[in-house]
Structures are given as structure tokens and as C-alpha cells.
């Protein structure tokens, strides 16, 4: 059976995403081979495709997916053929079949679909570590979350609601109802409102305990103005462009602020931390605490169209790429 994948031979726009026939070797020691059922689409995929994040070409983008184990390499005892698994690892996700380290795969519960499992691995676990680990959100906290209507944002709203924290989001006006439906207490129209001024108004000048900013270049400096003294800015993406160098002296001037640039993989580096994170996330999905809405589905071979939609802000919620479509 032939196997196909999206290959990037040179970085650039969405047009560099090419659907090609590829060979996949037998799984090596400690690896499993999976036939993928769903692959998650994420902004980080565009960073690698464009060259913003370095990768040695040719490469296959994609960091999360779900499917069935079809072969196990030497020494693998955790999984066997036919097991349903999900993962988030480095590159290689945009493929019909792939090998990956068995210790990076997790079992999918019966009450969670392939599609939900795929998009929960990067977006879901990202929202979970941001609100439960980078800053351990409490019921009396006030939060600003940029891109509230995006895949991570909609999950974060529900986690904050579950915890009981007050969460304020930025989103375009037409997506406010969607974000409210996913747990947000107030929304700011970033196209027509100064979000820092609105935060001052909404909080009666008290400002926020933490700001989560995945937009980057166009928002980060103003995000600092939304924080109360000793507040935390969590910069976890840069969809608007690379963040300019930050003068650390500003942090003291603005109230002894904290800034961090975390990544999911540090938070799930050990097997135990990965299992803890996915157990909690799949538990939320299973009992309805968190609902992840699949806003768009594209055939994997149409990844170029998916990237154009994502970068054009035409997507809502999570997007999956389907190898069998």
C-alpha cells in the first residue's frame, strides 16, 4: 500500500506544502508505526513551513495526531497492533502513516474520538499546562486571554470556567458569542477597541493576574499594561510576527512583572508528566467539562488550503486534517 505525506522542500507560503508518495520504514526499537485517522492543524505548523522556526528541509510538518498502531518495534510492550493512540511530538504529523517513539504515545479512551484526541494533544494540553502549571489558576484570579476564539482559546475558556476564575478574551466582534459559549466572562473587540484601556475599565483599575498572549508582535507590549503589580505575562506564540527584544527594565517600571516563554514539551518531558496531563485532559473531554469543537475539516492532501484558511483568520475552533478523506 502506498503511503503519502505533505513534504516541505523549501520554506515559504502555503504553496510549498506538497503531497507526495513516501516510504516509511519498519518501526525501530522503542517505536510504533501508526495509521493515522486525524491530524491536528496548529499555528506552529505555519511557523515551520514559513521558516520562522528552523527545520532541516525536506520535512513533514505537524505535531499532533491520532490513529491505530499497525506495528511495534523491538522492546515495545506498552502498545500492540490495533491499539488507538494519540501523540504530540516533533515534526512528521502530516502523513498517512508514521513511526514515533512509543513512550510519546498515549492510549485514547473509548469515549474520545480520533478527531478529538488529535486536537486535544497539542491545543488541549497547551491550554491545560498554561492554566494549571505555568500559572496555577485560582477561582479569584482575573485572566486576559488573547485569541479567545482560537483552538487553544476556546479550551482555555472552559478550563477557567471550571476552575471558577474570571476570564476576559480578545476576539473579533463576530466571534464573541462563540467565546462566551466557551466560558468567557467578557470579550474585547480587538479590531475596534484598545484592549488595555478596556481591561482597566472592566477590572476597575485592578488589572489582571495573568495575561496569555499567543499573538506576539502586535500585542505583547500592551499586554504588559494589563497586568497588576507582580503579574505574569505568558507569551506562548507569535501569530502576528516575531516579538521584538524586550527591555527588562520595563518589567520593574511596570510593577515588578514576570514574563515567561513556555513550551508544552518541557511540561510533558517525562512519561509521568505526559500521562498526568493526558489523563486530566481526556477526563475533561469524557465528562463534558471541556468540549472541543471541530470547526473545519480538510483532506490531508489539501493542507495548503487549510494553511491559507488558518493564516487568513477564517477558521473557528479546532481544525483537523483527514488522511482518508
TrEMBL record:
- A Pfam family that the UniProt record links to this protein: ADH_N
Among PANTHER family, the record links this protein to: QUINONE OXIDOREDUCTASE PIG3-RELATED, QUINONE OXIDOREDUCTASE-RELATED
Q: Which SUPFAM superfamilies match?
A: GroES-like (SSF50129), NAD(P)-binding Rossmann-fold domains (SSF51735)
Q: Which CDD domains match?
A: QOR2
Superkingdom is Bacteria
| Entry GO CC | cytosol
Q: Please report the stretch or stretches of sequence annotated as the Enoyl reductase (ER) domain.
A: 12-321
Q: What is this protein called?
A: Quinone oxidoreductase
One GO MF term, please? Answer: mRNA 3'-UTR AU-rich region binding
UniProt keyword list: NADP, Oxidoreductase
Q: Is DNA damage found in the keyword set?
A: no
